[in-house]
Design brief:
Oligomer: single chain
Largest sheet: 4 strands, antiparallel
Shape: globular
Number of helices: 7
Distance between the termini: 29 Å
Structural class: alpha+beta
Radius of gyration: 18 Å
Strand content: 15-25%
Order of helices and strands: HEEEEEEHEEHHHHHEE
Strand order of the largest sheet: 1-8-3-6
């Protein structure tokens, strides 16, 4: 909805090819990024080079606003998971959007609250040693926005990166959850019951 308004106002659309890094840790924020099409993953990387997914942003969503709002350097990498079309709003333009659009303000509060909830939930879950519990919690969280009968559109690798587990562990545990009837698998994909 906001993306079409930005297009109508003449904001340019930038193309990012798959695997392009949009920003990285330590850079000062200059833009908020609105995704017209595509998908972006936000990751942190530990000292051993293991990625931990902080978020996945899809068509119609936006990212990069927390660092811009508090004027602090980015803490993570954002990488195009697919070829993506993105509209970049600089700080002045973003604050003008906040000033002019009460509906966008409400949406921003909801989005930031959901992200804070997710981070709090994951912080607690990462302290839990049981892989099954960690995986079931993240799957249930991802199911919140899906209607029944819809397929969860994340890979086993993405689930591993979100939970700090190895992909082999995720595959094994997802099969265990399916046998217990906690999740349903269809053609290897997780289906919301």
């Amino acid at each position: 909805m906001y993306i079409q308004q930005l297009i109508d106002k003449g904001y340019p659309i930038r193309n990012f090819t798959k695997d392009t890094v949009i920003y990285e840790p330590g850079l000062q924020p200059k833009f908020v990024f609105f995704i017209k099409s595509g998908e972006i993953r936000m990751v942190t990387v530990n000292g051993d080079g293991k990625e931990f997914i902080q978020g996945i942003f899809k068509t119609g969503q936006y990212f990069g606003e927390p660092a811009l709002l508090v004027n602090r350097p980015y803490l993570a990498y954002t990488i195009a998971t697919k070829n993506s079309e993105i509209i970049q709003l600089n700080k002045t333009e973003f604050f003008q959007l906040l000033k002019d659009n009460a509906e966008f303000n409400s949406d921003l509060i909801r989005v930031l609250s959901n992200r804070l909830f997710y981070k709090s939930m994951m912080l607690e879950e990462l302290g839990n040693e049981k892989a099954e519990h960690r995986l079931q919690t993240i799957i249930n969280f991802l199911f919140l926005d899906l209607p029944a009968g819809e397929i969860l559109k994340v890979t086993r690798q993405e689930l591993a990166d979100m939970t700090g587990l190895r992909v082999e562990t995720v595959i094994r545990v997802v099969k265990q959850l399916a046998k217990k009837g906690v999740v349903q698998l269809t053609h290897g994909r997780i289906l919301k019951i």
